[in-house]
Every structure is written in structure tokens, then in C-alpha cells.
Design a protein that fits this description.
By secondary structure, this protein is mainly α. It has one domain (about 80-300). It has 14 helices and 3 strands. α9 crosses α13 and α13 runs antiparallel to α14 (about 280-300). The longest helix is centred in the middle third of the chain and has 28 residues, at about 175-200.
């Protein structure tokens, strides 16, 4: 219990450390553009404002932009920064978009699915040897590693941590932080919805479900969560969260590798604890990453990024 409490505190601090890394881009109102350029390397402008605002109406501003600025690329910001009924309703819409996303896949997307499926089938042949290897080295160090990493993918700990980050963002009026927390929360909840579908349909026995272990035993579909090995909820949760963290704070070089390393350690701990087969962890990582990527995209609105050209 003490280990889990310390791990929960560590998970909260880890998420906050990622999410408190401030973006280097600075936003300015269009009407204050000229003043903003004196102290900032980048500015962002809402594309809708370019159609009606004084920038397009005054020749001085036109000339200033043409000679001093270049359109570099686009920046994005979160659509939902307050946890209200609108944000909650968007979660249901996002879940629908994620669930029906295969209907919109292109040929390249299906090729990726085939490649992932081929990799999973190949890894499936190693499920038993990997589990046997772990079982032979199942010592106190391995058990301690598994117990320490478990809370980092457990919704019981992850969701309160995300809510804590949202609370800090709302209290400090940091919309980037609160928007990140709302998006991360939606990503992990939608991911675990898909996890529940898979567990009910598959009913794969865990490595530690039976004595002796029933290798590759699948009993699904059944309307309960007994024998719920496929696929790993902890791993999927960790990768969904890591993906949203990377999408929002990846401009800091250390964030992406640390986020995905932490998620990978969560997956490894599920194998080490004999809670999952290797393929459960592999598919969990793929699903978590994919959902995190799509949910983050669905919750962004674009702005034009202009860079000083003088």
C-alpha cells in the first residue's frame, strides 16, 4: 500500500512536470500585433480575423506584414479549456469518431493495420517463451518493479492526477494546461472504452490466471470481465497519455522520449508481473497511441504562425 501511495504521488508529479513545460510560442491580439513583435519571436493570429480585422483593411499593416513577416506554418490550441457540459458532450462525439474511424481509413492506413497485425502474429509465437522466461526470474526485484509501475497505467490513479492538473490550470487561468488535461482525460477514457470491448469479446486467460498456465486460452465472447488479458488497459492508458503529452509539449526535446519511455516501462511491468502476455502489451500500446493521436487532433483548432523576417 505504501508503494502504491508513493507511486500515485510520483504519477501526479510526473504528469504535472510534463504539462507545466510552457510552450515557447506567444499569442498576441491582432490589434496589438506591432507592439507584440517588439518583444516576441513568434505571433499567432486567428485565420478568421484575417478576413475582417484591420490587418486586411489598413495598407500600413499590409505593408508591414509583407515586409516584416513570413507565414511559417500553423499553430494549434485546444478547443475545450473548461470542464463544462460542452466539453463533456464533445467526449461522446470523439468516442464516436474514434470508434468509426476505420470507415475513413485510406489504403495506406489499411497497410499499416496489416503490418501491425503481422507483427502481432509474429510476437504471438513468443508469448509463451517470454512468459516462461519471466516466470524463471520472478524474484523480489521483478515484483517490486511491477508493483511500482502499476499505478502509472491504472485509471484509479491516472484520472485523479489528470483532474489535479486540470484544477491547477483552471485556478491559474492557464488554458493550455486545462485544455491539455481535458484532452488527456478524454483520450484515456475513450481508450479504456475500447479496452472493455476487446476484453469482453476475447476473454483471453492471463498468464497468472490458471495453475498450470493455460497457454493462449481464449473463451470469448462473454458478458463479463473474467479472464481479461487482451489487451492491456494499463499499457493503453499509459501510451494514450504519453501521446497527448508529446503532442502538446513535444517542442521540449526531453518530453517525448521520457513520456514514451515511461509508457513502455508500464507495459514491461505488466509482462514482468505476469498480468499480460507480450501481445496484450503490444496491441495496448498501438491502440493507446492511435487513440491519443486522434483525440488530440479532434480537440485542436488551427491558427496561423507568423515569424519575424527582419
Amino acid at each position: 500500500m505504501k508503494t502504491q501511495s508513493l507511486s500515485f504521488i510520483a504519477s501526479l508529479l510526473l504528469i504535472f512536470a510534463f504539462s507545466s513545460a510552457k510552450s515557447q510560442n506567444i499569442n498576441f491580439a491582432v490589434t496589438n500585433l506591432q507592439d507584440g513583435l517588439k518583444s516576441a519571436p513568434t505571433v499567432t493570429i486567428d485565420p478568421n480575423q484575417l478576413k475582417t480585422d484591420s490587418i486586411t483593411q489598413h495598407k500600413i499593416y499590409k505593408a508591414y506584414i509583407n515586409t516584416s513577416l513570413t507565414a511559417k506554418d500553423t499553430l494549434t490550441e485546444y478547443k475545450y479549456t473548461r470542464l463544462n457540459l460542452k466539453a463533456i458532450g464533445s467526449g461522446y462525439r470523439d468516442c464516436g469518431r474514434v470508434t468509426t474511424s476505420p470507415l475513413r481509413w485510406t489504403g495506406n492506413d489499411w497497410l499499416k493495420v496489416l503490418a501491425i497485425g503481422g507483427g502481432a502474429l509474429a510476437l504471438h509465437q513468443l508469448d509463451v517463451p517470454i512468459n516462461d522466461l519471466v516466470n524463471r526470474h520472478n524474484n523480489s526485484i521483478v515484483k517490486g518493479f511491477s508493483n511500482t509501475m502499476e499505478p502509472f497505467g491504472n485509471l484509479v490513479y491516472v484520472l485523479p492526477s489528470i483532474l489535479g492538473v486540470y484544477g491547477i490550470g483552471a485556478y491559474t487561468h492557464n488554458e493550455d494546461l486545462s485544455g491539455f488535461a481535458i484532452t488527456a482525460g478524454k483520450a484515456v477514457l475513450i481508450t479504456n472504452t475500447l479496452v472493455m470491448y476487446a476484453k469482453v469479446l476475447a476473454h483471453r486467460h492471463r498468464p497468472n490466471d490458471d495453475t498450470p498456465t493455460l497457454n493462449n486460452q481464449w473463451d470469448g465472447p462473454r458478458a463479463d470481465l473474467k479472464n481479461a488479458s487482451f489487451f492491456s488497459s494499463h499499457t493503453a492508458t499509459a501510451f494514450a497519455l504519453a501521446t497527448v503529452i508529446s503532442a502538446n509539449y513535444g517542442d521540449h526535446k526531453w518530453v517525448t522520449p521520457v513520456a514514451y519511455t515511461a509508457a513502455s516501462l508500464v507495459g514491461a511491468s505488466r509482462i514482468a508481473g505476469r498480468d499480460h502476455w507480450a501481445t496484450d502489451v503490444f496491441i495496448g500500446a498501438i491502440v493507446g497511441y492511435s487513440v491519443g493521436k486522434l483525440v488530440d487532433k479532434l480537440n485542436r483548432s488551427k491558427k496561423i504562425k507568423l515569424v519575424v523576417g527582419l
